[in-house]
Inverse folding.
């Protein structure tokens, strides 16, 4: 059902006026599960402002059969989404690679929940063995806007590192280049090398490892892993960059915070994830 908006109002109010027999709870479920679109985009907020001339599409949604997102949604609106990617899942598969990925899974979910009209675009990547906040755009324009202003995005991680860094807080600044396929190394300034800047501070010291909060100023491939290894503190579980231990059976790196100006509204968005339970258990064990 397609309905033209004739006067300013909130979306939920509009739905109530057009479907008076539906309880407010039912209407909220329709919004939650992608059953309402405004000008071709899924709308999930009942307080979304409507203006004359906009078109609202209403689809029947059976909440019992509603499509649940395959990954936990930390943030979701009509322009972008942020998910909690687990360790072991690719952000996006390489061309020709038949492997599950956050991009593929969320793309399938968006297409299914928008009756084939929606799609997603990967904005940045997390290492396969890392976990945490991963952002996807719902249009190419929004993706390009986010990537163009990626230096405005605050990115923080929790990392369990072997040993102890030389200072309680510090900055690692250096050039990185690809040494061989999929592996980076610190180098002098040279053609093909890119400057990388990583800030860290100690949160807790254990017998043989240290919990660090890490903030990225740049976003190079494997940047945190390479930089921490360069100061003698490889990430726990990171055999690729010299770690000697793997007690968690995974890379001990977790993207815990993203803060950014919304690419459309300009409002600041701040998203945080708690420390993974497996990290907490390791810290308790000392």
């Amino acid at each position: 059902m397609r309905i033209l908006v004739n006067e300013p109002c909130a979306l939920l109010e509009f739905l109530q006026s057009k479907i008076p027999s539906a309880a407010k709870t039912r209407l909220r479920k329709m919004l939650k599960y992608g059953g309402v679109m405004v000008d071709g985009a899924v709308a999930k907020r009942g307080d979304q402002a409507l203006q004359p001339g906009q078109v609202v599409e209403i689809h029947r949604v059976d909440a019992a059969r509603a499509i649940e997102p395959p990954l936990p949604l930390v943030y979701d609106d009509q322009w972008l989404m942020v998910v909690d990617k687990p360790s072991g899942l690719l952000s996006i598969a390489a061309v020709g690679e038949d492997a599950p990925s956050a991009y593929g899974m969320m793309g399938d979910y968006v297409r299914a929940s928008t009756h084939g009209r929606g799609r997603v675009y990967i904005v940045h990547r997390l290492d396969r063995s890392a976990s945490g906040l991963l952002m996807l755009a719902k249009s190419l324009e929004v993706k390009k806007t986010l990537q163009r202003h990626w230096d405005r995005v605050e990115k923080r991680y929790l990392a369990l590192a072997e040993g102890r860094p030389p200072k309680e807080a510090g900055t690692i600044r250096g050039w990185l280049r690809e040494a061989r396929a999929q592996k980076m190394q610190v180098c002098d300034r040279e053609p093909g090398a890119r400057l990388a800047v990583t800030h860290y501070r100690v949160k807790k010291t254990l017998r043989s490892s240290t919990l660090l909060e890490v903030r990225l100023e740049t976003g190079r491939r494997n940047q945190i892993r390479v930089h921490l290894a360069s100061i003698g503190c490889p990430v726990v579980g990171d055999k690729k960059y010299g770690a000697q231990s793997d007690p968690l059976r995974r890379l001990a790196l977790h993207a815990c915070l993203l803060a950014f100006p919304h690419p459309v509204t300009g409002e600041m968005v701040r998203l945080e994830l708690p420390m993974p339970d497996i990290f907490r258990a390791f810290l308790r064990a000392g």
